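Re: the request from the purification team.
They wanted to know what the chain is likely to look like in 3D before they choose a buffer screen. I agreed to run a prediction and write the result into the notebook, where they can find it.
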Amino acid sequence: MEFTLIGFLVCLVLIIMGVPIAMAFGILTIMLLSFFGQDAAYLVEVTYKKVDSVILFAVPLFILFGTMLDATGLAKRLIDFINLILGRFRSGLGAVTVVTTALFSSISGTDSAAIACIGTVMIPRLVEKGYTRGHATALVACSGILGQLVPPSVPMIFYAIITGNSILGVWFSTLGPAIVIVIIYCLINAVAVRKMPIVFEKRAENLKEQIVNIALAGKSCLPVLILPIFIFGSLYSGLITPTEVALIGVFYVLILGLLYRVLSWEDIKGAAVSTAVISGAVTLMFYFTETTSKILILEGVTDELASWVVNNSPNQVVTLLLLNVILLLLGMMMNDLSGTVISAGLLWPIASAAGVDPYHFAAITGVNLGLGTVTPPTAPMLFLAGRIGKCSAEEYIKPALILMWSGMLPVLLLTTYFPNLCLFIPRALGFIK
């Protein structure tokens, strides 16, 4: 037990020093193998069988899907359509940002892709209409966590595979919290813009003209609007697997990009390279984390740690609070993909021992890691939005904290202590019992 803690401390120090997370966990795995003397050949074979999975192939496909869609710039059509519906209100453009991010997240599957794509278009537009650059940047960054929560979430694929649960059940367990976050963000934005010199867009006064404009914008963005409908419809019907959904999506975006002449071969090459780099790093991370988890299980360390936590916690409420603190720290240090892999591999056994439902813990993991990725001092997704919005930290930290503590923290508490918020939708759809 003591050596395991030393190993994790070494791993943490390496991550803080800037060593790639996958490599840090690779060193941890080698340390544990050497100390416990486990059969390396056996562990390599067992872990490889889990990596060699058709379901896991959905991960690079969804990443490629989102990266290629980002390269086409077609998300702008979706933004224009939603803007015609919501943009007539004083806080409308901010609501457009939140809702569009949620919809794009249902296509891209990751928060970084949602922030990069929506932020590039929306931050300049928000600033032009009178929003402060800091508020615009914070709104995009905090809305970006919806990429972790709205199905199909790429990080949640790893969670489902590692914990051995239904991918559809895991995906839809995070949808309830995501909907609540969208509503709360829109309300916070409505309050925040009251003191800003918002410039209203000129709208057609005639109802008929408004309907015609919305219809034209809807027709223009129909190819993009079909994607979330197709994804949700396919997943709900069960006619095709998540991997097949991702594969069809890649070909659809490819054909769409070439048809509209917005996707060059250089864009396709860049998307493929980016996908390979991200997928390779995350798969390596998955491999080492899974091997570490297997070693800890075989040596009884996981059971010992779980027993210690449960025995020293007066009740499940305190156990969940401790797990939330650990997840928040994980999210602050690493991206959503890496954090989810570690949570599923190392923290889930503790949550399971405390009697937490696996789909409930999936939702807790998603919301908490999302909060961590925008929480200073590290805040990787917040700083990403800052670079995209060309905004200094002094400008966006305060509005980001308001969104975090007034919006995300209450949802995290609701998700943690009111399981029905995350379990109602997957149960209603028949994905879990």
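For the purification team: Residues 38-428 form one domain.
Please add any questions underneath this entry.
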